[in-house]
Specification:
Elements lengths: L1 E3 L6 E7 L3 E9 L2 E9 L7 E4 L2
Antiparallel strand pairs: 1-2, 1-5, 2-3, 3-4
């Protein structure tokens, strides 16, 4: 699942469950992008859903 940040339209939050739920925060600027952080979380944050599996 991927969601667009409600604060910055160029930031996306990607969620994946392995042994627990993780969030990967990435920023996309035109064709470039970079990882901001990754962290374990208890729930999916609010924001516009842009992709689901």
């Amino acid at each position: 699942m991927a969601r667009k940040s409600s604060i910055d339209e160029e930031v996306f939050l990607y969620y994946k469950k392995y042994d627990r739920l993780y969030c990967v925060v990435a920023k996309h600027i035109e064709k470039d992008g970079f990882l901001i952080t990754t962290y374990p979380t208890d729930k999916v944050k609010e924001g516009e859903t842009i992709w689901t599996k």
